[in-house]
Write a structure and sequence with these properties.
The complex is a heterodimer of chains A (200) and B (205). Chain A is mainly α. Chain A has 9 helices and 2 strands. The termini of chain A are far apart. Classes of the chains: A mainly alpha (200), B mainly alpha (205).
Amino acid sequence: MTEHAIIPIVENPPVTFTQAEIGWTPWLQPLPEEELTEPHLKGLVEAGRAKSPYFRLLVRDPEVLEARTKTDKDIFYNTHSGLPRAERELAATAASRYNGCIFCASVHSRFASHHSKRSEDVQKLLDEGVETDLGERWNAIVAASVALTATPPAFGEEHISRLSAVGLDELEIADVIHGAAFFNWANRLMLSLGEPTPAN
Amino acid sequence: MTTTSPDIIDLLAGITAGSALDRIRAHRPETREQAQKSYLALFQPADFGDVSAADRHAIASFVAGLHRQPDIFEFYTSPFEDSDTDRWLIEVIKAEIGAGRATGPYGNYPDGPLNGENQTGPLYQVSQSSREALGPKLSAALEHAHLLIFHLRDASPQALQALLDAGWTTNGVVTLSQLVSFVAFQIRVITGLGLLSTATKRAAA
């Protein structure tokens, strides 16, 4: 059987970076919800994800999806110690802004705003790009995330020194590294397997 | 059957048991364990499904080479070094890495105000001689990997159709996409933690 990519007709697609709740539509057929088996449900980690076309597409390789989801959750939600949530989301937003993933940037800029209460600064990052001035602590996090996102990576000891200088300890620097690195995984999936759709 | 594997990020970032970075990673045990499980699910799965072990290593080697990470390239080509039948792949992939070198991310935004940020860059195609050696499926996968590594915002349903036309299944495309994207993540964690490890050792000296 020959399989085909889906070419969706999206009216008024998002064409700028936004904190609005936009959607996403796949270019390959997700598994139908009624065909999900036990291994698929295990791969989804959370049963609610069966409603999402993105996760029903990725669940075609359930083992990888399961490990990826658990990596994601620990990098962003394990806040017993280390970098505050807001700044992990800032690293994710900076990587997504630099790679150009409008969908990922929308979700994680919203989280960054929510946790930091600095929604104007977050919007500045979306509007003006990764060179904008957000104060030295955030500038250092954005610069490190962007350098790590470049291919080949341009991340160097100067980025680590700059993060130390604004008060980040080694675990917090490791959190910046993981937050930005993870979005080099997520952005590539979101950008290449489908496209953003307007907010409802 | 259980295969014991060292933690690949620790191995390639030079993090040794008991070191400062080992203790830092211990604060994120799930990150460490699941990043390794992702690696195992992609490179030592119980069922290789629609993507062969050799294809997985060839694509990961290409991705590491495009990131100019010789140690990670060697890590992913090591099964070919020991193989009588696949050793030739190393030279072909090296040649393609040379042809595909670029600096990213570049590419175009959807029509609108972001077009001012569009950046041009090379569109890579596997050379004719390599295509004959690699075959249409692996050639299409390398071309897609190059897109995902350097100009991900140029991705399109047509790019996925090219993979399907070359003989990949939808399931196979999902695995390929995860593989390229995972290696992009893994390389950045290794690069970042490797440098942090060096900085920490220097501070302690």
